[in-house]
Amino acid sequence: MSITRYGADGGVGTGGQHLPFSSAVEAGGWLYVSGQTPMTDGEVVEGGIVEQSRLAIDNCVKIMTDAGYGLEDVVHVKVILTDARYFQSFNKVFKEYFGEHPPARICAVADLVVDVKVEVDVTCYKAP
C-alpha cells in the first residue's frame, strides 16, 4: 500500500507561520483531510458561524477534490465549535453539503488555537 501526502510542504497559518503537516494523506482508498478553519491564504475570514462554517467545509472540499474525492465519499466528519450555541446554525450548513450523503460525525465544543468559531476535518473512502 502506498501513502500519498497532499500539501506536505505545509500550508501557511496565521501570521505567515509555516504549518508542519500535510493538508491530507491518502492510503488504501482512505483520505484523511487535516482540520480546516475559515481561513484563506493564512488569514482568518471574519464572519458569523454560518459564513465561517461554509468556508471551513469549502476548504475541506477543495482538498478532497484535488485528491479525486467528492462529498459522496465522505464517511466521517469531526467538528469543533467554540460555542455550543453555534450547533443548530452549523447543522443547517452541514445539511447543505451532506444532505444527500450524510456521513457519521462527531461535534464537540472546545477552544481552538486560531481565533475562529469552527474547525472541520473529514475522512473519505473510495475503493482502490
TrEMBL record:
InterPro entries from the UniProt entry: RutC-like_sf, YjgF/YER057c/UK114
A Pfam cross-reference name: Ribonuc_L-PSP
Gene Ontology cellular component list: cytosol
Highest rank taxon of the organism: Bacteria
Annotated coiled-coil segments of the chain: none
Molecular functions (GO terms): deaminase activity
UniProt record similarity statement: Belongs to the RutC family.
Name of the featured protein: Reactive intermediate/imine deaminase
Top-level taxonomy: Bacteria, Pseudomonadati, Pseudomonadota, Gammaproteobacteria, Alteromonadales
